[in-house]
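Table 4 source record.
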Amino acid sequence: MNPIVELRDLHKHYQQGELEVKAVDNVSLAIEKGDFAALCGPSGSGKTSILNLIGGLDSVTSGKVILEGTDLSALKNGELAEIRKNRIGFVFQAYNLIPVMTAYENAAFVLDLQGVDPAVSRAQVMKTLADVGLTGLEDRRPDQMSGGQQQRVAIARAIVTQPAIVLADEPTANVDSKTAESLLDLMETLNREQGVTFLFSTHDQHVMDRAKRIIHILDGQVESDELKAV
């Protein structure tokens, strides 16, 4: 199989005074198309660092991050920005919506950056907002929406461009358990019916229970990689 993402001998080290911290320590793994996978581990285990390296938000110390055959570690900042804009969707625990924009405008933001024709963009955005259960809320700003609704806008923004992969960093951290289950229902449906590939960073049991693949991270290393029985 041709993985969407492949990590080869990946290292990310930080210097804290005289101490070298190995946030990611020789990680090799592949994420396949259609995966609904979770990087799990305690705070400080390195799971978010791995997600940031895959997303091109941080640079590697050594090793490779290969996305759809392209070695991200060899790209310049402008080239990385193009990859992020066109091939990677992001969902953050703090939503990261633009507060002065409506739900529609937030969801359309990346399409606008891509220069998509306005009519085509509108059709894509309206369909995606409907897919995530936000029909009728298109004109609301983030401060007029609940946490769960804001995260649905963030998911819409992440998937509207039909990226190769959606990276979701603790997407249920700021919502209650009922809302978390609703968001996971949504992402599970997108994965099953539209083939959207998700990679989560989490220590939330709700996410771990739903993930089809659990990758345990400890001290910057892959401790285990388990594909659940269907």
